[in-house]
Amino acid sequence: MRWSIRFCRNFRHDRLIPPSNSTNPYRVFRGGPQPVSKMNLSPLEIDQPRKPVRTFRQFRPFLLILVGVALILVLILLSTFISSVVFAVVLAIICSPLQDRLERLFRGRDTLAALVTTFLAALIVVIPILLLLSALTSQTVQLFQDLQEWVTGGGMQRLESHPLVHRMEMWIFRLAPTSGINLDDFKEQLAEISKTLPGSVLGQGAEIIANTFGFISRFFIMIFITFYLMRDGKKMTAHFKLLLPLRDQQKDQIVDKIRAVAKSVVLGSFLTAVSQGVVGGIGLSIAGIPGIFWGAITAFASLVPLVGTGLVYAPASVYLLILGKWKYAVFLAAWGVFVLNPIDNFVRPYFMQGTAKMSPFLLFLAIVGGIFYFGLAGIVYGPLIFAFAVVVLHIYKEEFVDPDIIK
């Protein structure tokens, strides 16, 4: 009598399970093998040879290739507004404590809590930007009108006759034979730039409007993404952890490090920039220079490592000195050195304490490299990339490096 048993392998536990067409789940396993006549198989199934069961390892390379292709296509699709996605993630991380409190207040209604949190975050970002843009627009127009009047009124000629400028010309003239500098050509180029600068700036109006529209569209994309991250962020994080083939402790290290760095970098960099912009604008206003416009420039300059706000108050002090306002020049230089610079030394370290276990040297490299490669957005991208690299290297050291060798 022919005997036959149908086997099916459970890949996770490597054990036999009953056939799917069996009414009794234990008929194959109890009492030994069963006759073919009692297994409810058709003659075609009895005579057909059994096909080899393919294991998961045979499909794994193909599946990994599919996953890689899918991720690359998603990155290409998101590349046009990837900055909106990154800043939405950072904004969701910063506002997550408020989201948790509102969820408790609204008794677990996460959609309502996410809607309120996103609305408040948008207001906190939008209102200062609108006020700043309105003030910047008026002061920028006034600044270029004054510049045009200064040029047409003979300001360049008066500047050339200033004793300090004359000394600089003599120094350049002595340097010219060895450096190849032509002083006359330099003067002609400077005069040409001063005449065409107001017109060229006004001619960029269409481009400025286009850039403003692009900024507004990316901002709304960021707010839209932030809402869903607020509502479903915990589920997304849990799914992300499930995909990582690491221990739970190592998964938590990666997620916690990225959260800490994102929060501290944004708070440290941008709140420091706002503080220095406000304080710098006050000092510039006292010295008779448009405070709102140059205060905003000071805020952006504070994001540049090493030189920072010196890019603004040092030339402004020289400008006041050339105009003969030496008291205001000395005041502005002292304001920059003794009031403006200490803000960077105290405020930034206080807010960036979340970047624990990342040395100031690595943080400096991350910010500088991020700015050079990504622009101003690199202030966020650079530290995030470095933080991810640091925590991955730490996990590698735990897994593969013998601690006795380090000792």
Q: How is this fold's topology laid out?
A:
Elements: E1 9-10, E2 15-16, H1 43-47, H2 56-78, H3 82-105, H4 110-152, H5 155-160, H6 163-179, H7 183-203, H8 205-243, H9 248-286, H10 291-301, H11 310-322, H12 326-351, H13 360-374, H14 378-400, H15 403-406
Helix pairs in contact: 3-4, 3-8, 3-9, 4-8, 9-10, 9-12, 9-14, 10-11, 11-12, 13-14
Radius of gyration: 33 Å
User: Strand order across the biggest sheet?
Assistant: 1-2
Low-confidence stretches: 1-33
Shape: elongated
| Number of helical regions | 15
Helical content class: over 70%
Based on helices, strands and strand pairing, what is the structural class? mainly alpha
Query: Secondary-structure element sequence?
Result: EEHHHHHHHHHHHHHHH
Q: What share of the residues does DSSP label as strand, in percent? A: under 5%
Number of strands: 2
Question: What's the main sheet like?
Answer: 2 strands, antiparallel
Mean pLDDT: 74
Q: First CA to last CA: what distance?
A: 71 Å
Question: Any overview of this molecule?
Answer:
The protein has 407 residues and is an all-alpha fold. It is 76% helix and 1% strand. Among the domains are: 1-50, no CATH class; 244-407. The protein has a two-stranded antiparallel ribbon. β1 and β2 (15-16) form a beta hairpin. The longest helix has 43 residues, at 110-152. The N and C termini lie far apart (71 Å).
